[in-house]
Amino acid sequence: xxxxxxxxxxxxxxxxxxxxxxxxxxxxxxxxxxxxxxxxxxxxxxxxxxxxxxxxxxxxxxxxxxxxxxxxxxxxxxxxxxxxxxxxxxxxxxxxxxxxxxxxxxxxxxxxxxxxxxxxxxxxxxxxxxxxxxxxxxxxxxxxxxxxxxxxxxxxxxxxxxxxxxxxxxxxxxxxxxxxxxxxxxxxxxxxxxxxxxxxxxxxxxxxxxxxxxxxxxxxxxxxxxxxxxxxxxxxxxxxxxxxxxxxxxxxxxxxxxxxxxxxxxxxxxxxxxxxxxxxxxxxxxxxxxxxxxxxxxxxxxxxxxxxxxxxxxxxxxxxxxxxxxxxxxxxxxxxxxxxxxxxxxxxxxxxxxxxxxxxxxxxxxxxxxxxxxxxxxxxxxxxxxxxxxxxxxxxxxxxxxxxxxxxxxxxxxxxxxxxxxxxxxxxxxxxxxxxxxxxxxxxxxxxxxxxxxxxxxxxxxxxxxxxxxxxxxxxxxxxxxxxxxxxxxxxxxxxxxxxx
Length: 501
Fold this sequence. Notes:
- The chain is an alpha+beta fold.
- 58% of the residues lie in helices and 9% in strands.
- It is built from twelve helices and eight strands.
C-alpha cells in the first residue's frame, strides 16, 4: 500500500472546519463518474409472430378472457378459484420466496448506508497512578492523573470512483431479480395447483365411466350365466365375462389411487395436511378457454423468470464497476471532536473541547494480479448471465409454441375421438344384438366392449390434457404478469446522486 496522510501536528495548525469542508468538497467534485460499463440489455432472438398464431389461432372473444393477475378466473370455476386464493395464505414455498425477497431488500439498505458517514460516540474514564521514578517525574511532580473523555468520531469514505454506487446498483438489481423469482414461484405453484385440479377432475370422469362400465358388465355377466344355464352359452363365455368385469373393477381402483395422489398434492400446495383435506368428486365438463398469446415481443416483459435473468445481468454488469474501482485510490475522512478533562467539574466546559480532522488516500501498488483476476471474474460472470438470459428466452418461445401446437392438435384429436367413441358404441350395440341372437360368439362382444371402453377413456383423457395444456400455456405466457412492476419496488430510502450524475 502507498498512503498519504496528514499528521495530527500539521492538522492542528489548520482550522478543522475550513479544512474538513475543503476536503469534503474536493472529494465530491471528483465523484462525477462511476467506473465500469453502463448497462444496456443485450439483444435476444425475438420472432415476429408465433408459428401457430397467424392461420390457426383465433383472437380471444370476449375481451374478458385477456390474462390478468388472477389468471385462473378465466376458467370460471368457483372451486378452483377458492383453492387458488389459499395459496397466498398457506403455501410454504411462496412464504420462503417472500422471505428471500425481504433479505434482498435488506441487503440494498445495508449497502446504501455506505453513502453516509459512520458516526460513533462514547464516554471513557480512567485513573492512572504514575511511577515516581519515571523520567522527568521530579519536574512534573504528578503521580496520579484522571482522564475523562467524551469522543465523537466520524469515518467517511467518499464514493469518488463509484464503488458504492455500483454495489448499490448490483444489490438493487438482485432485489428486483428476487422479486421476479417470487413471481415465478407464485406462477409455478398456482399453475401446478390448476394442473393437479384438472387432472383430478379428469380422473373423476374416468372413474364414473368405469363405474358405469362395471354396472353394464355385471348385467352382461348375468345374461351370459343365464344363457349358460339354458345351454345356449358355454362356460368359456361365462369366464370371459367374469374376466372382463374384474378387469374393469381393477381399472376403477387404479384410477381412484391416482386421484388420491392428486388430492394429496393439492393439500400440500394450499398448506393443509393431506390427512384432513378432501376434494369433492366432480366431473370434467368444461372446455379450455381461448387464451390470447399476444405478440412474441411482449413475452420478454411477461415472463418473470426472464425478467429475473435480465436483472441478474444488470447486477453482474455493476459488479464489473466494483472490480474496476479497486484500481483507484481509496479516500477516507476521519474527523473527531469531543471533551476531555481531568475532573468532572470542568469536563463539559469550553476549554475542555477538542477537535481533529484527518484525511487519507491509499492505493494498492502491488497485489500479484489479484485485482485483474477479480475484474476478469466479474466480466466472465456477466458473460455467463448473458448466455443464460438468451437461452431462457429461446426456451420461453419453445414452451409457448409447444402448448399452442398442443392445444390446436388436441382440439382436432378430440373431434376425431368423439367420432371414434360413437363408432365403437355402435359396434358394441351390434355385437350385443348378434350375441343375443346366437349369430356370434362372446369373443366378438368382448372385443367390442374393450374397444368401446378404450375409446371412451381416451376421449376423457384428451379432455383432461386440453385443460392441463391450457394451464401450461398460461404459465408459458407469464400468467398476465408484467416486468414493469419491478420498477415500482421501493427500497425505503432515496439514493443520493453525486455531483455530475
